[in-house]
Amino acid sequence: MVSTNKEELLISLQDLCNLFNVEDDIKIEHKETILGNKITNEFIYESNSITHSYSWTYDIDKSLSELRKKSLRKRKAANGLYQVLSTELNKTLPWGSLTGVRPTKLARDLIEYGEMKEYLVAEILEKDYFVSKDKAELVASILKNQKCIIRNDNLVDIYINIPICPTRCIYCSFISSELERVKNKIDEYINAVIKEINAVKDIIKNKAYIVRTIYIGGGTPSVLNNNQLDRLLSEINFPVSEFTVECGRADTITEEKLDILKKHNVTRISINPQTFCEATLKRIGRKQKNNEVLEAYSKALVRDFQVNMDFIAGLPGEKLGIFKRTIKTALELYPNNITIHTLSVKNGAELKSHQQMIESRDVFKMVDFAEKTLVENGYKPYYLYRQKNQLSGLENVGYFRDNNICMFNIDSMEETNTIIGIGANAISKRVYNLEHKIEREANVKFIEEYIARIDELIERKKQFYK
User: How many CB atoms lie within 10 A of CB 105?
Assistant: First the structure.
């Protein structure tokens, strides 16, 4: 669909074409010419044997670092292509020319590099990046609510991955194994994870790191049995004020497991209904019932856990009215945090391969209703991220009430702190705040390979944090 003489620009330009749903018979050629401090972007748009040419020239500050110059060139090229496609197709996108996962991080970077003032965030996103007014104001609100950010290279977050679920939802593309397939490997996997945890303890001691938060995700960590869960948590003894464990599937939550979590100082859990329509739950492959969600939530409240609940806009077969009832039910429960996801239809998901019909026409209204209704009832947005193939090019937003934010979510999405990833498919990120640099190191993806290569992975991690 798109070609360019600068390959480092190709991914972002192709992503923008995908968001516009550019047809295969449309050809777009991009050329970037650099003469001194002047850069010209030229786009040639061809459709039905009709060719249109567009060109823009801008100056680039020679004093900028090579990294900033590269970033600026990518943004200018994306802005140019957006204007071409918007003109030719008579269409706009809610996030304008932005194709990345973290719109808030872009805004924060622009502030920190002196390219805009915080009070101008919404205005500049609208004017310079063609972001819709609602989304630009959402970014500005989130930045104001992220007051817990501390940039300190000695602060780290720990993420532990348990990539196992009771069953696979048809929209899921995560590398996560169904319990029945790997149940005979779980004890070995926990042994390997514990081995990596102990190696990480040595790294933290040697580097004089301070652990800020702990997050155990997946997958569904609460799929572990009582003994496995207790063994794992017994090895995690860092004194933190925020310790989160995902317990997304209510049918995996028992009083005994909640007591084990409480014994090991876990402070936050997630209980993720996704929807309160049981017909939809059956359709997407989740066996839980609403009464199981309510029972699990009640048991969590009795034990004084902070609770997050996830919901998805755009699930197969759901209309706006059903989604509204789900949000109203969530407000009756009034959890500490609510995350609204927009359905992402990824290639690795069963939903994609079965070509299930998805109603996307109402998804804008769903996301808009959720935001307005949650804010009216005392919730505030505090983190945001986007994924490829989300319906209508929308986003995922986390909301909080009464200052009950999840610091890990902010650290992770804004990439402000080093994250030490443990377990299969966990990714470690080492953040160098002064150098404005991030390095990544990924563990192998699959449980069996992780078990077999644990010693090698530990050595790699030691070198990474050397």
Answer: 16
3-state secondary structure of 217: strand
C-alpha distances (whole Å) from 299 to each of 228, 259, 296, 328 are 21, 10, 5, 21
Query: Phi and psi at residue 446, in whole multiples of 5°?
Result: -105, 145
Listed by start position, the domains of the chain span 1-75, 92-145, 155-455
Q: Are strands 268-270 and 337-342 parallel, antiparallel or unpaired?
A: unpaired
Which two structure tokens, joined as six digits, stand for 210?
């301070």
Which amino acid is located at 452 in the chain?
A
- Gap between the Cα atoms of 82 and 77, Å rounded: 9
Let me know: does 430 contact 438? Beta carbons within 8 Å: yes
Token pair belonging to 352: 């994609």
Task: Please name the fold of domain 155-455.
Answer: pyruvate-formate lyase- activating enzyme (3.80.30)
The burial class, CB within 10 Å (0-12 / 13-18 / 19+), for 181 is exposed
CATH topology of domain 1-75: Double Stranded RNA Binding Domain (3.30.160)
Question: Which three-class secondary structure state does DSSP give residue 126?
Answer: helix
Same fold, 1-75 and 155-455: no
Reading the block at residue 36, the tokens are 């001194």
Token duo for residue 28 = 């777009």
C-beta separation of 211 from 156 below 8 A: yes
Length of the chain, in residues:
466
Residues 101, 124: Cα–Cα separation, whole Å: 19
40, β-bridge pairs? 33, 57
Number of H helices, E strands in the chain: 17, 17
For the stretch 363-409, pLDDT in tens is 999 999 999 999 999 999 999 999 988 998 999 999 999 999 999 99
Sign of CA dihedral 321, 323, 325, 327: negative
431, 413 Cβ separation under 8 angstroms: no
Tell me which amino acid residue 134 is. D
The pair of three-digit structure tokens given for residue 404, joined into one six-digit string: 């009950």
Please give the model's pTM, rounded to 2 decimal places: 0.94
Give the pLDDT confidence of 193-232 residue by residue, as tens digits: 999 999 999 999 999 999 999 999 998 999 999 999 999 9
Whole-angstrom distance, CA of residue 263 vs CA of residue 276? 31
- The whole-angstrom separation of Cα 112 and Cα 280 is 44
Helices within 278-431 (DSSP H only): 278-284, 290-302, 320-333, 350-353, 363-376, 407-414
